[in-house]
Amino acid sequence: MVRRISREVYCMAKRKISLIGLVVVMICVLVFAPVVTAGIYFIHTVSGQLQHTASETVSMYLNEFTDRTDRMMETLRDGVYYLTSDSAAQQMMSSSEPLTQIQILRLEQNFSRAFSLGDSLNPDVVSAIYLIKNDQYVPVYGGNYYLNTSWRVRQMYQTHEDCNSARTLYTHYTIVGYAYMIVDFVDLNTMQPLGKIIVELNINKLLSTLSLNQLYPSTVVIFSGDQGKRIGSLQTDLFRENEDMNKWYHASSSLRKSRERVDIYIPNAEILAGVRQSTRVYFLVCAAILILALLLAATYLILLLRPLRQMLHTIGSIGSGDFSVRMDETPYTETTAISHAFNDMADRLDTLFQEVYQRGLLLRDAEIHQLESQIQPHFIFNILELINVRCMVAGQPAICTTVQNLAQLLRASVVNHGKQIITLQEELDSVKYYLALQKERFEEKLQYTVDVEDDKLLGCYLPKLTIQPLVENSIVHGLEPKRHGGWVRVSIWEEEDAVYIRVHDDGVGFDPSAIPQPGSDDKHHTHVALHNIERRFQLLYGEPYGMSIKSEPGHGTSIVLTLPIITAPPEKEKDLC
Question: Model-level pTM?
Answer without folding.
Answer: 0.44
